[in-house]
Design goal:
The complex is a heterodimer.
Chain A: H1 3-16, H2 18-51, H3 55-69, H4 73-83, H5 92-118, H6 121-129, H7 134-164, H8 176-186, H9 191-222
Helix pairs in contact in A: 2-3, 2-5, 2-8, 3-5, 4-5, 5-7, 6-7, 7-9, 8-9
Chain B: H1 2-28, E1 38-43, E2 52-53, E3 59-60, H2 62-73, E4 77-82, H3 88-93, E5 99-105, H4 108-113, E6 114-116, E7 121-123, E8 125-130, E9 147-150, H5 154-160, E10 166-169, H6 172-180, E11 186-190, H7 191-201, E12 205-208, E13 215-222, H8 226-241, H9 244-253
Parallel strand pairs in B: 1-4, 1-5, 9-10, 9-11
Antiparallel strand pairs in B: 2-3, 5-13, 6-13, 7-13, 8-11, 8-12
The chains are: A mainly alpha, B alpha/beta.
């Protein structure tokens, strides 16, 4: 088969599979948004605990980051979906999202901590010396600057989170990767094409997202 | 300007996320309280012609329709749950579904973990090799032969009788392709699955020798759920008696595979 014919065949497969893959993309996005939304909150809380002067909070944050960063995401997903099932029956969507959130939360916590600690100590001291409370100084002075510095690594982490959502396939979520696996099992002759198509959808999502992050970075730099 | 807006931005972001998340939750959680009691059963969805997804993502296949027919006889709503093969026992024990109708062979090891219904079909594994292979049967296998098999399947144990060089795959289609590509010397798989897929894929492979064993394929149910087990067995006898079984069997496999 010539390359032109192959390209035509591939294109027709891409178009024919479009409705199913778009549906799957929507699920991938919902998983990612849920996971990263919760992940940011988790990250923020644990970053605060990690930089706090309270030893107890430090220990909790350290433990969390050590355990979560030290175990594979797929193990965490199975732990919540199959392991916890006899105790609490978490629906597949939430098992996957929560595992992703908890997992990304650990990395996001480290990103936030790095950002906050990169802000010169003098800023906090100056803010305190003009009478601001610790919380107010954190909110008004340190966090806004830290957040700006966090954007590039956060964008990076979001891209990782988006791609990691493919592991939800193993707890029955018909997202992009699962869709490709099902198509490939049904039409094994086109397995290569279907995995390529799934890859293209992820690539498109990442490219769009990376573009948005870049725009945001540029806007904040101007300020 | 940025500094003053940031907390607001953050707030909007967080609240927005919360809305999206809860919004999704409402739409996504599978409808828990069904009007009619359900009979939920799992299969891999990657095992044509027993369970597979068509071009429009509809779940079809012999196992799926047998489940639907059984549910109907029991007066329940059928709820097929496609689940990856390796996770099928996990999900059953975890209560994710009532039964596995997933072409699972009844074995001693599995009987320790679950109860099985009466066999709902019978088949058996055969040895598949490339058409030009000099392996003409299991007697030609040596310790050097590489056999590709589905992981956690009965074929794995069977293959170990001939060689230690096993390669594992999580569906038979992959194993058959590896064989055709020359990365394995033989595949042991169900004769129906092997033949249908080889034809579908246009692979230059053939089956050699006799059935390596007769397998009885049953419906797995959690231990102790005797009422459900009895109901399933009764429903199975009913669909065999009224011709529903035969129609499904002919539709997907082109033959009566009950083995009765």
């Amino acid at each position: 088969m010539g390359i032109i014919e192959y390209a035509v065949d591939f294109y027709s497969l891409l178009v024919k599979s479009y409705p199913i893959f778009i549906q799957a993309t929507a699920l991938t996005l919902r998983l990612t948004v849920a996971a990263l939304g919760i992940g940011i909150l988790i990250g923020l809380v644990f970053a605060m605990m990690k930089i706090s002067k309270n030893r107890f909070f430090n220990a909790i944050a350290d433990g969390y980051i050590t355990v979560i960063r030290g175990t594979p995401l797929i193990v965490q997903i199975f732990w919540i979906y199959y392991g916890l099932a006899p105790i609490i029956n978490v629906p597949a969507f939430w098992a996957a999202s929560l595992a992703l959130a908890v997992h990304n939360g650990a990395y996001i916590a480290e990103i936030f901590r790095g950002g906050i600690q990169s802000i010169n100590r003098g800023q906090m001291e100056a803010a305190r010396s003009v009478g601001m409370t610790y919380g107010l100084a954190m909110r008004r002075i340190v966090l806004p600057q830290a957040f700006k510095r966090c954007i590039p690594p956060l964008g990076n982490q979001f891209i990782i989170g988006l791609k990691d959502s493919s592991l939800a396939a193993f707890v029955t979520m018909p997202e992009l990767f699962m869709t490709a696996m099902r198509r490939a099992a049904n039409q094994p002759g086109n397995a290569l094409e279907y995995y390529t198509i799934a890859g293209l959808y992820y690539l498109a999502l990442v490219v769009v997202f990376a573009f948005l992050v870049k725009k945001l970075e540029r806007r904040l730099d101007v300020d | 300007m940025f500094k003053r807006k940031l907390p607001i931005m953050l707030f909007v972001l967080v609240v927005g996320m919360a809305f999206i998340v809860t919004g999704c939750g409402g739409a996504d959680t599978s409808p828990e309280p069904p009007a009619k009691a359900t009979f939920s059963y799992a299969m891999s969805g990657a095992y044509p012609p027993f369970s597979y997804f068509d071009d429009n993502d509809n779940l079809l296949g012999f196992d799926v329709e047998i489940g639907t027919a059984l549910a109907e006889k029991m007066g329940l709503e059928a709820d097929p749950v496609p689940t990856p093969w390796q996770a099928l026992p996990l999900g059953l024990n975890a209560g994710r579904y009532d039964a596995i109708i997933g072409s699972m062979t009844i074995t001693e090891a599995r009987l320790e973990k679950f109860d099985f219904s009466d066999p709902y079909y019978r088949s058996g594994p055969k040895l598949f090799v490339r058409a030009d292979s000099n392996i003409k049967g299991v007697d030609d296998l040596t310790a050097e032969s590489t056999i590709a098999v589905l992981m956690e399947s009965v074929y794995e144990e069977l293959a170990r009788e001939y060689t230690d060089k096993l390669k594992f795959y999580d569906n038979d289609v992959l194993a058959l392709r590896e064989l055709a590509a020359g990365r394995a010397d033989a595949v042991i798989t169900d004769q129906i699955v092997g033949l249908t897929n080889a034809k579908e894929l246009g692979l230059d492979i053939v089956s050699v020798g006799d059935l390596l064993m007769v397998e009885e394929i049953g419906i797995a149910i959690r231990k102790g759920e005797t009422d459900l087990l009895n109901a399933v067995n009764q429903a199975l006898a009913d669909i065999k008696a009224d011709g529903t079984y035969l129609a499904i069997s002919e539709k997907y496999v082109g033959a009566d595979i009950s083995g009765d």
